[in-house]
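Inverse folding, one chain.
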């Protein structure tokens, strides 16, 4: 698949564009009557390695259906037990519909938009009534919850769609970093992050050299490097977190 075609596919289909997947007008009544089929955008798993030892596995899926995108993930520990789950639902314009998180040890939370606020409701095993915390943030604010690397993949797609375009066979992006105001529900906090394209790099994945697209994701107290495959719909392949001696690799 040529670069421009790959870019168009990734930035219109994977990112939830209002363009119809199969070229059928979105407002076609027959489609509404039949129901739009679910389109699989991405699925798989990431291995989380700390000092070279696999400590966790994140299984995920990204689907589009009925004009919305659904990002589901579950985190398993080294023994294979599911310890956390998340479910992120967004409109085609990245507006939050609902976010849910839960853990096996007890406790859960939801985030929903309400006018100019995002409302987080936290339930604990010890409390019958959920606590509520509002954030003065637009509904288009990205969710970047702890331990879910698929959320970072979605943010990278969003950055590429909004701030980059193919030009002469290369990817041209806005000069300098682009800032996003994000919500981290498990920490009950918001934080600004910066995303910046570095360019193509040769990266060794399981002993094989690959040419991947590097993007830096930084914040006040962290610096991550992410590599995406621009020849395979900009899927996230690897994440490096040097400060924590952590590497995340797509299985």
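Residues assigned per position:
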């Amino acid at each position: 698949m040529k670069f421009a075609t790959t870019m168009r596919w990734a930035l219109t289909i994977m990112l939830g564009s209002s363009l119809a997947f199969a070229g059928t007008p979105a407002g076609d009544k027959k489609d509404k009557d039949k129901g739009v089929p679910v389109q699989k955008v991405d699925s798989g798993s990431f291995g989380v390695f700390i000092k070279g030892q696999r400590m966790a596995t994140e299984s995920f899926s990204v689907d589009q259906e009925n004009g919305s995108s659904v990002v589901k993930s579950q985190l398993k520990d080294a023994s294979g037990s599911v310890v956390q789950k998340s479910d992120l639902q967004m409109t085609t314009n990245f507006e939050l519909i609902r976010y849910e998180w839960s853990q096996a040890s007890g406790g859960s939370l939801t985030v929903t938009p309400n006018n100019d606020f995002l409302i987080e409701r936290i339930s604990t095993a010890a409390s019958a009534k959920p606590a509520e915390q509002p954030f003065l943030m637009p509904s288009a604010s990205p969710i970047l919850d702890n331990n879910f690397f698929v959320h970072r993949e979605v943010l990278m797609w969003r950055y590429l769609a909004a701030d980059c375009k193919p030009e002469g066979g290369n990817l041209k992006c806005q000069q300098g970093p682009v800032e996003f105001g994000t919500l981290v529900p498990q920490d009950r906090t918001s934080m600004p992050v910066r995303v910046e394209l570095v360019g193509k790099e040769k990266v060794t994945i399981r002993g094989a050299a690959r040419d991947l697209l590097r993007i830096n994701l930084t914040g006040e107290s962290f610096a991550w490097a992410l590599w995406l495959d621009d020849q395979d719909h900009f899927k996230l392949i690897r994440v490096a977190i040097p400060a924590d001696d952590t590497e995340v690799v797509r299985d």
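The longest strand covers residues 189-205. The chain has one domain: 3-250.
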